[in-house]
Amino acid sequence: MKHRRLLGSAAPAAFVVAGLALAPGSVARAQPADLIYDDGTPSGPLRSLSPGDIEVTRMTPEHPARLLSVSLYASAGGCTMHAAVWPDGVGNAPDIDHPLWEEDRVIDAAGWTSFDIPEDAVVLDPPGHFYVGHVL
């Protein structure tokens, strides 16, 4: 197992989950809905971060769903963001060894970055905890 320090998003400037587009219920008749963690206003960066740390937010849909997209906020540009969605692991932590989806994206400037999730890459049926975040 990889050992990384896990950080929540108590001060979500470097990492904010503003919206996750979910398709609840049967995918054939689903209407997208947002599962929002934050009000979208950055409030200050987390401190004492090291390469290899991860910042995550635990999300829990109420119904079976398919994840369609993720929006994350980067407090600075000139870097590459390694965004990911992880299943629930042991002890209220993500299973970082088995990501459900991940993507590297060059971040040119501070601001919101949206990631489209490939169809059926993240299916939450039965519904349960999952984690959205990035690796530093």
Structural write-up:
This protein is mainly β. It has no helices and 10 strands. The protein has strands at 6-7, 17-24, 33-35, 54-59, 65-74, 79-87, 101-107, 111-116, 123-124, 130-135. The chain is globular and about 40 Å long. It starts with 5 loop residues before the first strand and ends with a strand. The model is unreliable at 1-19 (pLDDT under 50).
Helices and strands, with pairings:
Blueprint: E1 6-7, E2 17-24, E3 33-35, E4 54-59, E5 65-74, E6 79-87, E7 101-107, E8 111-116, E9 123-124, E10 130-135
Task: Describe the structure concisely for a colleague.
The chain is mainly β. It has strands spanning 6-7, 17-24, 33-35, 54-59, 65-74, 79-87, 101-107, 111-116, 123-124, 130-135.
User: Count of DSSP E strands?
Assistant: 10
The overall pLDDT average reads 76
Calculate Rg over CA atoms.
14 Å
Shape from CA axes?
globular
Major β-sheet profile: 5 strands, mixed
**Proportion of helical residues:** under 10%
Beta-strand content: 35-45%
Distance between the termini: 17 Å
Taken in chain order, the helices and strands follow as EEEEEEEEEE
Oligomer: single chain
Alpha-beta classification: mainly beta
* Main sheet strand line-up: 1-4-10-6-7
Number of helix segments?
0
The poorly predicted ranges are 1-19
List keywords for this structure.
mainly beta; 136 residues; 10 strands; 5-stranded mixed sheet; single chain; 5-stranded antiparallel sheet
